[in-house]
Amino acid sequence: MRTARRAGGALVFFAVLALFPQVFQNATVTTIAVDTLIFAGAAVAWNIFSGYSGYLSLGHAVFFGAGAYTVGIAARAWHTNGDGVFVLLLLAAAVAGGLSVPLGLIALRVRRHTFVVITIAFFFIAQLVATNLSVTGGSSGILAPSPNWTAATFNDPFYYIALALLAATTAASWLIRGSRFGLQLRAIRDDEDRAAGLGVRAMPVKLTAFVISAVVTGVAGGLWFYFIGQAIPQFAFDPLFDLSVVVMAFFGGLGTISGPILGALVIEPAQQWLTLQYSNEYLSEILLGALFLVVILLLPRGVIPTAAEQITKYRARRAAVAAGPAPAGPAPPGPAQAGRAAAGPAQAPAGPAQAPAGTVPQAPPAGEQAGTAAREAGP
Amino acid sequence: MGRQVYEAIVDGILGGGIYALMAVGLTLIFGVLDIINIAQGILVILGAYLSYALSVHLHIDLFAGLLITVPAMFVIGVAIQWLFIRPLRGRERTSMSLLAAYAVALIIEGILYKVFGPTYVVLKASYITSSVHLFGFYLSYIYLYGFALAVACVAVLYLLLYRTRFGRSVRATMQNRTAAQLVGIDVNRVAAVTFGIGVAVTAVGGMMFGATSGGFNPNSGYDLISRLLAIIILGGLGSIGGALAAAVFMTTAEALVDIWSPDWAVVVFYVALVLVLTIRPAGLFGRGLARAQ
Fold it and tell me: Please, what is the Cα angle at A185 between A204 and B84, to 5 degrees?
């Protein structure tokens, strides 16, 4: 029942997205839309690794940039243009995936802060390599072949490919989350040593998630490159890319399926719109930082888990009111007691961690519960 | 060739003193608060801009200006900790605080762009341009003064940590936060003051960076933080002696590779980091793997 409703919601959501460029044909709007979809795909991909495993990667721009440069170099070498460039996205996937294996083998040996810092180090190495090699065009970067379709529908192919990427990645995220593999990942997130003790082969599991995530990010990078038309080291390997993707996932809800999409749909258009409106990138930088602080301080677990929790609470309260007539009796403790007793069973199906007090939102079971609730809430 | 190598080693050691000072602030913050202050790089740049503003607009000498910028950066550090780091709680506290620091860095960078613009500026003083002949080398006075200042600051920090009551409570908090609380240490106050001290040293580091780097702009923070991170990880997180050794090691290695190829010199930092961590995941002087996730 719940699965069917969720699948229906997802279908409606993607159907709306598919119709979007037919309704809005303004080039500015569709440009922002393409950008948003690319970032949504990258955010969902980032979440498959970092959200589920708890290993926070700030180096996914490496794969984004690798995808971009792969498409650029291959298109230049083989004189590919037009639709043919899209085929090169497969190559971008292969290169990003291939690159992620050695990087993952090195980085995944360490945890927490050290892991984060190593991913940042990878990112800087990649940027420096791209700046210093001749095959990448040095600091002037590399140009994309110009697409040969008409201006009127220029954005459409990019839009639909980005949408397909997002849909496929979301499906993958959903399948992984429910699978044995996904459970192993989340066990690693909660306590890696205990998970290993229980027979999870941590390294292969982490590495697989890392590679899946990198492959999608590489494709997103390749698509972005063809869409933007140019890759230079600062923008192909952009620290703001990493931060944006992380903010999107955190905003929507880390480790949920729909959270990163929601985050991308809110943050990327807002950022693009602000940049267009004020033609001042510094302002959008300040605002992104401020928004991020607000999210972290006020909604530390993201919109979707928090909203889902509020809805569950609200339902439970209504159920409690319905169950206990709660007469304004002479003995005040009586009704309150009854209400609480009724609340317990009413909430039980939603999740055991929810019921008692609601004051321990950070305890591991609550995190798990939030995830389940989010699946219920979002498409 | 031999002469170049000697020069590179001298440059590396003198430059390493400055990086050591900045890195000690970072590793101290990590040790006490268990967070990585990603904003340290941009805070160094902020310190450099404060020195710049004081010297250009008020004509205050760079070293005298430290009497103003160090307390100012201390206050900024305490404010950041109080407003954005302290309220974070719970299981994701570590990653959240890292991201909060990143967000603070972005905001500071944006403000610096707004105020000072993207053009590169340099700090100017007589002792930056004039040099002294020493042991057969020509050395700019600023390197000597800066190195002496960095050594003095590290010594003060050492005395503060190992010879005072406050230092003892800081070390206790680094070792075991809960136990420190149980024996009556105000852990929140220790955390705030430590963050303040860790940021205050960026005023000194920023002034030196601005005077020796040949120009900086708001974007310079990224390069700086990545080097500092490489240094403290290599030295072992939370190890002050490790940070000192790693800083000198890294800058010397960079200066040596610079003889051969300036383009690739910066990569040495990260390659050394990756290599060392492949062999010894806890860093050179680390206290064992960060186990608990």
Answer: 120
